[in-house]
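REQUEST ID: PR-0412
SUBMITTED BY: lab tech R.K.
PRIORITY: routine
TASK: structure prediction, single protein chain
INPUT:
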Amino acid sequence: MEQRIAVARCHEIHLSIRDKEVPRFESIPLIGMAVQLALHIRGLPLVEYERLKLVASTALGIPRIAVDRIIDLLAKIEFIKIQSEGKRIKAILPVIPYYDELYDGIGEYMKDESEVDEFEALTLEIMDKLAGAPHNIDALAGKLGADRKAFDASIELGEKGQFLLVRRHRSKTILLNPTYFSENADVFADHVAKCGAGTIKRTLELIQSAQGWPLSLIIKTGEISGKKISSDDIQLLKRLAQDGMIKPPTITTTHSGESAFIFTPTPGFMNINPLRRDQYERALAIVSAVRQGQLLPNKFQIRNPGALLYRLKTDLQLKPTSDYAEQYQNLVHLRIAQLVPTQGGYTQLKIIDTPENRESLNIAYNLVQGSLPPDIRVDKDAHRAMTGPQDYLESLVSSKNMREREKIILSGESEFEVSQLLLGF
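STATUS: complete
OUTPUT:
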């Protein structure tokens, strides 16, 4: 497994664990917390250290006692500059890179200085396989070739720590990574029990490359962006549209009827605060409107969705036309845009200029380009509290519940088996 992928899995596990302590883990929580803190201080000016500690322990699921160690890690990979008085840290200046470079930097530390034991390495392998698709428990154990007792102990710990879901369907035990599949867990689990993990993995990869493809077009052609998919996978997409907890965006027009637009599960959706979730759902509405004009047009077809979205997020408007009032109706309802009448019976789409709408446009552009959107798991409240006014910090602290950390341990037999594995018996 690539180091950057291992780092991402550590972060996902941390987001699920948060206020739980797992004595069996050492490197996974450290790396996960390092990513979490780095994402939240990236781009900030000089931050008072005591303030950082307070926000980290209150809002980011990072124990106050762990912050010093994480700061030492980030300093070693030159992601921060430390301002000290004697041995006491007074403030830190973040110089953290974006996207892959962030994960690469922490990955180098993980490779060189963080001792990931066999049990933690096995847990990361399991979670990585489950990031692509849910798996039958026996099939996954065989694919990894791991010691079955250690494998079962990792599954037990994952279920107790809530970074792994276990479901029973069609007399089979199905494992899921909740970061990607929590919203429609039973639909996905039932499909894996029926058809296997491979079909889901391929279908999701096709959707990843063609986010917002109309379900009606998939059903009609048996394809996603020119790539064939099976009838079983079409049934899965129909179930997700009809029965899933997250309904895909729909657009109703007089010329093409009601159309649902399909997207991959959102990474970390269960960890997104309500405001960020709303921004992401607005982005899906924007992509759906553009796909409508590209694939189910009325008079004029959108030929380059990426170019149109780039112009929209740059100019915050499109040229007047007589064609697209129905296509963009959801954007009006969601207070993303206005349809302004112009001369000659034309209508012009104008984005309502707010920071939230601009961010949704950026997410939409990245989705259509096949790129990962900006990390929407970043808590904007925590980000602002790092450098905002004191009353804002106090408000954040008072609104967060200070919880005791629950300790998650293996059963006696599993603990013994893992100990034997690590000792080489």
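NOTES: The first strand starts at residue 20 and ends at 21.
REVIEWED BY: pending
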